[in-house]
């Protein structure tokens, strides 16, 4: 089919939807990200109180202590909507899959020192459960958060954390030649080993935290912000020095992901703190409340990972995290 | 060293997902998962949950990114090439308007509802399935907005959909439907949306209607519509699994599930009347009538599904025979309602052309010829005489489905069907026995329904005192967004665009 | 006679070999075309066999690739690496 058009006379009558134009100002073209998230969540005329929590409406801004004039301002600097997100993850998955195949087909993990393999089993494989907790916590934010920008990004984060849990699972299986008892052993450590109990107590407490913005700060800034640099970045470097370059290839996704997801976590917190001194005080209060718990949870892991240098490694990571918080405009 | 054991699809999936969760001990499980018991559904063993599609995130990202790359490549081409000019006729756009105003918001609501279920269930398999559906629904909302964004630049009625969505009387039908589901517990939510709505009923929306979009040259809707439906087949399967799971876990669950199926079949059927009306009236080139679609997707495929569930003691949903009886009427009655309230609609209505009336005669037979055709011809005559009929009074609306109480008695197409229900000394009106039963089962819930005409009378609609002030409060521009199609700016623009180019031939002509 | 199960695909080049494989492996299956799609109905049970699809495509095929062009289905699903089965249990 061919159409020969005098396109000059087929002029658009408007540039975007009213609610987007109102937020952007007149005569500006909207991005796909803006059209995909702004104004998507209803605010008025909600019909029925949820039977699971009749004290609130379905979409209720009072499920967090922070207050925004417009929760649509909590945008994602990555401008992820489903399409851009899934296409990006598809590419990363492709590359990660090649890494796994390369490591598996050449038996690259076979040459690693046994003591270090054992460390990965004890220190990394149980982290699949921590990623699962992060999945659970982000699905909470997606369910009870306010405004499509936050619920959209939180649900993508939910699935990213499931992906990470599954990538860690694959590492565990590769180390054990696909013997699933390796996963059971890691789960036993998670449930009963003293080293893991402060971490498990922490994530379980996160799972009953009701304020979704507090949970965002706790999970996406603080827990991940300390855990990932310590157990993926630093530990990865240590393994590499002991014949574990192949191991590092299998963490490619997780390490890349952390840098990217941190941009989102920080931007949301920064914007929220900018909104009012009250918001800022809430966020700083949450950081003060949770940081000692996180340090306590990571201390035994850090000690086991970095013989004799656990405290130094952890302090470094915590310093880095506080620098991040400072850049987000917080006094910590 | 022995070669690593190869893992099959089932084993691999089960390792990747199932072992991830654990029984919490620092916090009680009932506090971590506070919402999955109060509905009375008894689950003995969450590990019996089966994931039929077994998608790991790796596979999910792989296949979804491929779908999405294709979809956006087509949307880009569509926008760059003025794809809006390829539709069969600008009247078709009104189906798109109704979709954007009424259906796209439901996709976002579904995203939230499944996020809730994906947090609420204590079983890991069920949770993952709901979480995946939650982002799929987000995908549907967003791809629809991106597809429709281009149409919005050229046609009226779509610009204020977000404002309209929460305020317009006819959009209260889909909105209240979904909020009813979301305000229920997670088991009822999944039963209502994944099973009753998606498995039993949305084939009617995404298959014949989207096929109709293809036939009417709407490449944007066809592309996202079929692409969304491929996710939908996963969701339907989740719906069937959750229903079977509940039924297999405990016999006490059977009556609870049956009551939900009764409720949600009727709720879904009432909502889909809007889709039927889109199919019969808003597609200038017709693919399949509502009646035919009902016969294939309910009477054949839907009933087969219920036969399959009969071994658990599940029977066909209540009033299914009423819905079948109404298949020759429901779209004609609803179109008449939309037509007369055209001054408060964000889309245009019209009397179909003779060729279309002949098609309806062929599909609907005697009843159409004796009841609806004469009415449509009368309306056309009036319009041509400069006397286009509008009903500018506020209608009485069903307390449950929120459709104006204009449907007729199941056995008498000439008698208005009204049921009066009472709770706490107040009378409410329902459109049918189906809706009255739903009210009587949960009166505390349905007295909360926000009924637009009542809100207007109470002054809760921006103080509007009549239908015109109400339309203004909805941000609808009179006769531009609202009213008759013939002579509307959409109509005029379309004619002007058509006159400066050779008429495009929709490819789908050959498929007729 | 058993109730029909069904599966529907987008009517495009990628789905064509899958549709052909289904019709070959399920002699009772009937394909119905409408604009943009093909719906295949089959009494009681329908199977998509990986090997047959691979023969038609001339390459390796993962049954999960079906998702890309799948539109809808009706019936209980059972899937493993070799077969994707849709069936009614009654």
- Please identify the oligomeric state: heterotrimer
pLDDT < 50 stretches of chain B: 503-512
Beta strand % of chain C: 35-45%
- H and E order of chain C: EHEEEHEEE
What can you see in these coordinates?
- The complex is a heterotrimer of chains A (332), B (512) and C (90).
- Helix content of chain A is 67%, strand content 0%.
- Chain A has one domain (82-327): Ribonucleotide Reductase, subunit A (Orthogonal Bundle).
- Chain A has helices at 18-24, 32-37, 82-105, 114-123, 127-144, 148-175, 181-192, 197-206, 212-240, 245-250, 252-275, 277-305, 310-327.
- Chain A contains 13 helices and no strands.
- With 512 residues, chain B is mostly helical.
- Chain B has a domain at 21-325: Ribonucleotide Reductase, subunit A (Orthogonal Bundle).
- Chain B has 21 helices and four strands.
- Chain B has helices spanning 9-17, 29-32, 57-80, 93-120, 124-152, 161-165, 172-182, 186-201, 203-215, 219-249, 253-282, 290-309, 320-325, 330-340, 354-364, 366-384, 433-441, 443-446, 452-458, 467-473, 489-499; strands at residues 408-409, 412-416, 419-423, 426-430.
- In chain B, strands 1-2 form a two-stranded antiparallel ribbon.
- In chain B, strand 3 (419-423) and strand 4 form a beta hairpin.
- In chain B, helix 5 (124-152) runs antiparallel to helix 10.
- Chain B starts with 8 loop residues before the first helix and ends in a 13-residue tail after the last helix.
- Residues 503-512 of chain B have low confidence and may be disordered.
- Chain C is of the alpha+beta class.
- Chain C has one domain: Phenol Hydroxylase P2 Protein.
- Chain C is built from two helices and seven strands, in the order βαβββαβββ.
- In chain C, strands 2-3-1-5 form a four-stranded antiparallel sheet, with no helix packed on it. A three-stranded antiparallel sheet of chain C has the order 4-7-6.
- Classes of the chains: A mainly alpha (332), B mainly alpha (512), C alpha+beta (90).
- Chains A and B meet through helix 2, helix 3, helix 5, helix 6 and helix 7 of A and helix 1, helix 3, helix 4, helix 5 and helix 6 of B.
């Amino acid at each position: 089919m061919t159409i020969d058009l005098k396109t000059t006379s087929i002029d658009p009558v408007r540039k975007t939807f009213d609610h987007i134009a109102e937020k952007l100002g007149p005569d500006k073209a909207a991005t796909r990200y803006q059209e995909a998230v702004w104004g998507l969540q209803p605010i008025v005329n909600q019909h029925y109180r949820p039977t699971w929590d009749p004290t609130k409406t379905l979409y209720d801004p009072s499920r967090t202590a922070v207050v925004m004039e417009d929760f649509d301002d909590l945008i994602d600097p990555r401008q992820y909507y489903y399409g851009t997100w899934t296409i990006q993850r598809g590419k990363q998955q492709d590359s990660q899959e090649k890494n796994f195949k390369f490591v598996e087909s050449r038996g690259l993990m076979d040459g690693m020192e046994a003591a270090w393999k054992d460390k990965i089993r004890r220190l990394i494989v149980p982290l699949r459960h921590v990623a699962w907790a992060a999945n659970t916590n982000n699905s909470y934010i997606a369910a009870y958060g306010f405004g499509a920008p936050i619920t959209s990004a939180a649900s993508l984060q939910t699935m990213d954390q499931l992906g990470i849990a599954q990538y860690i699972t694959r590492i565990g299986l590769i180390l054990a030649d696909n013997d699933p008892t390796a996963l059971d052993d890691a789960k036993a450590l998670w449930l009963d080993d003293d080293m893991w109990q402060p971490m498990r107590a922490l994530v379980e407490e996160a799972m009953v935290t009701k304020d979704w913005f507090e949970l965002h700060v706790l999970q996406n800034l603080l827990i991940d912000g300390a855990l990932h640099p310590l157990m993926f970045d630093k530990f990865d470097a240590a393994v590499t020095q002991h014949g574990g370059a192949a191991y590092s290839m299998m963490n490619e996704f997780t390490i890349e992901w952390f840098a990217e997801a941190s941009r989102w976590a920080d931007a949301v917190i920064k914007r929220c703190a900018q909104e009012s001194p009250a918001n800022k005080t809430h966020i700083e209060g949450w950081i003060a409340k949770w940081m000692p718990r996180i340090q306590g949870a990571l201390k035994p892991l850090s000690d086991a990972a970095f013989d004799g240098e656990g405290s130094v490694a952890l302090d470094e990571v915590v310093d880095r995290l506080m620098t991040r918080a400072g850049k987000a405009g917080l006094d910590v | 060293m022995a070669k690593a054991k190869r893992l099959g699809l089932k084993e691999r999936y089960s390792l990747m997902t199932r072992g991830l969760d654990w029984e919490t001990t620092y916090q009680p499980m009932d506090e971590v998962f506070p919402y999955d018991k109060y509905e009375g559904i008894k689950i003995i063993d969450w590990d019996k949950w089966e994931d039929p599609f077994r998608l790991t995130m790796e596979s999910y990202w792989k296949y979804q990114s491929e779908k999405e790359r294709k979809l956006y490549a087509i949307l880009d081409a569509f926008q760059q090439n003025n794809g809006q000019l390829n539709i069969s006729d600008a009247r078709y756009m009104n189906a798109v308007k109704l979709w954007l105003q009424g259906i796209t918001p439901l996709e976002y609501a579904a995203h939230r509802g499944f996020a809730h279920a994906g947090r609420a269930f204590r079983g890991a398999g069920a949770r993952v399935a709901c979480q995946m559906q939650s982002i799929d629904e987000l995908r549907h909302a967003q791809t629809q907005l991106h597809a429709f964004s281009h149409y919005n630049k050229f046609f009226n009625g779509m610009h204020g959909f977000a404002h309209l969505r929460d305020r317009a009387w006819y959009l209260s039908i889909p909105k209240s439907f979904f909020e009813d589901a979301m305000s229920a517990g997670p088991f009822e939510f999944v039963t209502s949306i994944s099973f009753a709505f998606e498995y039993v009923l949305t084939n009617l929306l995404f298959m014949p209607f989207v096929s109709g979009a293809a036939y009417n040259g709407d490449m944007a809707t066809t592309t996202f519509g079929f692409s969304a439906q491929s996710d939908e087949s996963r969701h339907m399967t989740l719906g069937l699994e959750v229903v079977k799971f509940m039924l297999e876990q405990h016999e006490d669950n059977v009556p609870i599930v049956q009551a939900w199926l009764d409720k949600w079949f009727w709720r879904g059927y009432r909502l889909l009347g809007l889709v039927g009306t889109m199919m019969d009236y808003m597609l200038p080139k017709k693919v399949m009538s509502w009646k035919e679609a009902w016969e294939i997707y309910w009477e054949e495929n839907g009933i087969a599904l219920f036969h399959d569930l009969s071994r658990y003691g599940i029977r066909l949903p209540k009033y299914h025979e009423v819905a079948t009886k109404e298949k020759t009427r429901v779209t004609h009655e609803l179109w008449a309602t939309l037509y007369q309230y055209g001054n408060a609609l964000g889309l245009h209505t019209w009397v179909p052309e003779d060729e279309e009336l002949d098609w309806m005669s062929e599909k609907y037979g005697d009843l159409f010829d004796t009841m609806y055709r004469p009415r449509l011809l009368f309306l056309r005559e009036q319009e041509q005489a400069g006397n286009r009929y509008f009903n500018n009074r506020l209608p009485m609306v069903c307390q449950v489905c929120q459709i104006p109480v204009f449907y007729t008695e199941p056995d008498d197409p000439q008698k208005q069907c009204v049921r009066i229900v009472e709770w706490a000394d107040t009378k409410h009106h329902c459109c049918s026995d189906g809706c009255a039963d739903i009210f009587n089962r949960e009166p505390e819930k349905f007295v909360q329904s926000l009924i637009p005409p009542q809100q207007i009378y109470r002054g809760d609609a921006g103080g509007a005192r009549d239908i015109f002030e109400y339309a203004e409060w909805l941000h609808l521009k009179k006769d531009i967004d609202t009213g008759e199609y013939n002579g509307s700016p959409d109509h005029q623009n379309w004619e002007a665009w058509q006159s400066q180019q050779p008429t495009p031939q929709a490819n789908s002509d050959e498929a007729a | 006679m058993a109730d029909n199960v069904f599966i529907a695909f987008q009517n495009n080049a990628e789905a064509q070999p899958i549709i052909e494989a289904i019709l070959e492996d399920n002699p009772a299956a009937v394909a119905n075309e409408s604009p943009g799609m093909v719906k295949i109905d089959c009494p009681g049970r329908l199977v998509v066999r990986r090997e047959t699809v691979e023969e038609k495509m001339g390459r390796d095929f993962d049954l999960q690739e079906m998702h890309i062009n799948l539109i809808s289905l009706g019936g209980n699903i059972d899937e493993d690496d070799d077969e994707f089965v849709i069936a009614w249990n009654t």
